[in-house]
Amino acid sequence: MCGALRPADAGRKAVLMGWVNRRRDLGNLIFVDVRDRSGVTQIVISNEANAAVHRKAELLRNEYVIAAIGTVKQRAADTINKNIPTGEIELVVEELRILNEAKHPPFLPGDTVLAHEEMRLKYRYIDLRREAMQFNIEMRHKVSLAIRDYLASQGFFEIETPFMTRSTPEGARDYLVPSRVQPGTFYALPQSPQLFKQILMISGFDKYFQIVRCFRDEDLRADRQPEFTQIDLEMSYPQPERVWETVEGFLTAAFKTAGHKITTPFPRMDYDEAIRRYGIDKPDLRLPAFTEVRDCFTWDDLEQLAINQDLPVVAIRIPKVGELSRKERDDIKPMFIAKGGARIFEDFKRIENKFPAAGVNIRKESGAGEGDLLVLVAGSAQSGKDDHPAQKRKVTPAELAIYASAGLLRVSLGQKYAAKHGLFQHGDFRFLWVTNFPMFEYDETDRRWVAAHHPFTSPHEGDMDKLESDPGMVRALAYDVVLNGTELGSGSIRIHRQDIQRKIFHALGMTEEEARSRFGFFLEALEYGTPPHGGIALGLDRIVMILAGAESLREVIPFPKTAAAKDLMVDAPTRVTDAQLRELGIGVVKR
Ligand code: ASP
Q1: Which of 386, 390, 392, 430 lies closest to 286, judged by CA?
Q2: Is 60 within 8 Å of 66 (Cβ atoms)?
Q3: CA of 124 to the centre of ligand 1 (A)
Q4: pLDDT tens readout for residues 240-267
Q5: Which of 348, 339, 342, 338 is nearest to 316 (CA)?
Q6: Is 326 helix (H, G, I), strand (E, B) or coil?
Q7: Are β-strands 227-236 and 291-292 bridged in parallel, bridged antiparallel, or unpaired?
């Protein structure tokens, strides 16, 4: 018997191996909490029963690795520890071996106050011994396994794709690996296996998946990692719904392993609707949607408020916030990031006083109760004159600016007042499919269209004729799966015809020459009998983070990098020797 001792083991002989979590020396009796992967178990060493063992136990220090051999004993009723699963028993030690000593670590796995994160990352092996980290890593294992099992049961093959490859199309910067054999040339680490998985469809593996590392050299935001793990999949001949069902299936399995039952199918929403109702393409459905309230005002009201009458006026409602002080109201203003000519009206009381009829209507339309916070966002009178290339879209760029400003504010207010509205409960999982994205976004700086998803996404069949004449109006067969305001993953039905692929490259401003040099191998592959296909990729780290209730991706990645893309434990990246550089034909330019 070893590890995970339980009351049923009472009376049995057992061996317990693990770390000294804590030692309490009561003179004749020494108690040691021994920690292994299954938790903590108390062992007891008595001077009277065995003086030699007792002497050895006096040498024990935190994090020593020991083996204790003895008999499992039911604890006396008054010494039972209800807080741990092994709290009803203890091991009475007959033989004790010190398997290894330990330096006193910079922090202890049992510490209640968490060490500074830099310290935790530098001594990650100590940090990973903590109960919370053991839980998170086990959760990660279980979630991956559930996803693999589910996908295998549906006929998917897990197939590996290369890490040393060439630039892929996700639009971030590549991590490069120099070639020694061909100096001056570089492999790129894949930003995703996108082209390989499409080529696997051309190769006849009609259901592919891979839980795979991807590498993107981006300026890191709080919840990004330069290398991260995707659940990547692709299938031949699917309607989007087939991809969605597959994702819903594996998410159900993954959430079940963490003890959560989720409801499928997930609701679906057009991109345009998401923008109009939530101001964002990844709506958090736990908070109320916007209410359009322009019609609650008279034209005269709007004029007095210097509000643009042609643009939307939206009300954001956050429930149960209660009366706000002047100062608290003032704090809302800096949270508002105005896009275009968007304006905020954070003092609804003032609006109500000045325009009582509008106030009554807005309360009614938005369903606002007494303690609910109402904030209005509108266009300023002079905004909205627009000759933007996407002007003909259902949601025009000027409208988008208002919705998007309101959308960000809604999310920030939701977070700020989470304790008051109480709508963010762990276990309340609101999934959503967002569909029918625009195919292209207009890059204002470069004054050109860029792919909103990636350039291998198929346009809607019905919008093909607009590819050249009106790219802004082309919708993509792309979809995102969203959970509680987080994008878990995105995917699309792909282009499977070479002529259309060329047209897309052209619409993106790529010359024939450029397209050939970057993706020539793929354009060629498309010509050899490519089945229609589509797929998706979801972020595994993020899913585990949500399931573990963790605050950051670093809590669920065994060996993560810092915001400066450093691994503090191994101290990477590092300089390399001149000899290595010479061999690679690389010179380093001092900056
Ligand atoms: N390769 C895409 C990404 O990483 C996902 C997909 O389209 O399947 O975002």
Answers
A1: 430
A2: yes
A3: 31
A4: 999 999 999 999 999 999 999 999 999 9
A5: 348
A6: helix
A7: unpaired
Bigger pLDDT: 50 vs 167: 50
Place of tokens 């008051």: 420
Q: How far apart are CA 571 and CA 566, in angstroms?
A: 7
CA distance 117 to 481: 31
Per-residue pLDDT at 195: 96
536 CA distance to ligand 1 middle (Å): 6
318-331 confidence digits (pLDDT tens): 999 999 999 999 99
How far are the Cα atoms of 27, 110, 297, 343 from residue 374, in angstroms, in the given order? 65, 45, 15, 14
Three-state DSSP at 188 gives strand
CB-based contacts of 571, cutoff 8 Å, min separation 6: none
Residue 385 DSSP SS3: coil
Nearest by Cα to 526 from 198, 206, 192: 198
Work out the average pLDDT over 400-415. Answer: 97
118 alpha carbon to ligand 1 midpoint, in Å? 32
Tokens coding 479: 């979809």
Of 240, 276, 293, the residue nearest 477 (C-alpha):
240
Residue 222: pLDDT band by 50, 70, 90 thresholds?
A: low
In the predicted structure, residue 4 carries a pLDDT above the cut 80: no
| Residue listed under structure tokens 């007095």 | 304
CA distance 193 to 491: 13
Backbone angles phi, psi at 342, to 5 degrees: -65, 145
What pLDDT is stored for residue 548 in this prediction? 95
Residue 474 in this model has a pLDDT that exceeds 70: yes
Residues of 179-189 as b/e, b for ≥16 C-beta within 10 angstroms?
A: eeeeeeebbbb
Nearest-10 Cα torsion for 240, 242, 247, 253: 160
pLDDT at 32: 97
Ligand 1 atom closest to the Cα of residue 168 is 1
Bridge partners (DSSP) listed for residue 539: 230
CB 457 near ligand 1, within 6 Å:
no
DSSP H stretches of helix in 396-486 = 397-416, 418-421, 466-469
Return the number of other C-beta atoms located less than 10 Å from residue 306's C-beta: 12
Residue 499, number of CB atoms within 10 A of its CB: 9
Is 537 near ligand 1, meaning CB less than 6 Å away? Answer: yes
DSSP assignments along 58-78, one per residue:
TT--TT-EEEEEEEEEEPPGG
Give residue-wise pLDDT tens across range 58-117: 999 999 999 999 999 998 888 888 888 888 899 999 999 999 999 999 999 999 999 999
From start to end of 352-437, where are the E strands? 373-379, 431-435
Report the atom number in ligand 1 closest to the C-alpha of 214: 4
Indicate which atom in ligand 1 lies nearest the CA of residue 456: 7
Q: Is 452 exposed, middle or buried (0-12, 13-18, 19+ CB in 10 A)?
A: buried
pLDDT digits (tens, 9 = 90+) for 448-471: 888 888 899 999 999 999 988 888
